[in-house]
Design brief:
It is built from two helices and two strands, in the order E-E-H-H. The chain is an alpha+beta fold and 112 residues long. The model has no long low-confidence stretch (mean pLDDT 86). Helices cover 50% and strands 16% of the residues. The radius of gyration is 28 Å and the shape is elongated. The chain folds into two domains: 1-61, no CATH class; 62-112. The site of zinc ion has 8 residues, from loops.
C-alpha cells in the first residue's frame, strides 16, 4: 500500500482495506473490488478496481457540510494571506525605490 489511510471522518477510527473478488459470469478470472471500511462505524469509501484509488476515495471524501464550509473558509483565508504577503513585499520594494529616488534628488541638490 502506497498512501497512508486517514482516520475515519465520522468517528476518527482506523479504516481497513477490504477486497471482494467477484466473477463476471463469463471469464474464469474474478474482478477485485477494493473498499476502505471503518473498523468501528463501518462507513465505507467508494469501491474501486484499483486499491490506490479506493484509498484515495477514502482519504479525499467530503466532510459534513458545516465542516466542509470551515475548510473552504480556511483555504480562502490562506489565499488572502498570500495576497497580503505579496502586497507587503511589493510595498516594501516601492518604499525603498522612492527612498533611493529621494536620496538621488538630495545629492543633486547639494552638488548642484
Ligand atoms: Zn468510523
Amino acid at each position: 500500500m502506497s498512501e497512508k489511510l486517514l482516520p475515519c471522518p465520522f468517528c476518527g477510527s482506523d479504516g481497513k482495506i477490504y477486497h471482494e473478488d467477484i466473477g463476471d459470469g463469463y471469464s474464469k478470472e474474478n474482478i477485485r473490488w477494493n473498499t476502505v471500511i471503518c473498523c468501528v462505524c463501518y462507513s465505507e469509501s467508494k469501491s474501486d478496481l484499483s486499491e490506490k484509488h479506493a484509498v484515495k476515495n477514502w482519504n479525499t471524501r467530503h466532510y459534513p457540510p458545516e465542516i466542509q464550509a470551515v475548510i473552504e473558509a480556511a483555504k480562502k483565508l490562506e489565499r488572502l494571506e498570500i495576497l497580503v504577503d505579496n502586497w507587503n513585499e511589493q510595498e516594501t520594494i516601492l518604499i525603498s525605490a522612492v527612498r533611493a529616488l529621494e536620496e538621488m534628488d538630495a545629492k543633486h541638490e547639494t552638488h548642484g
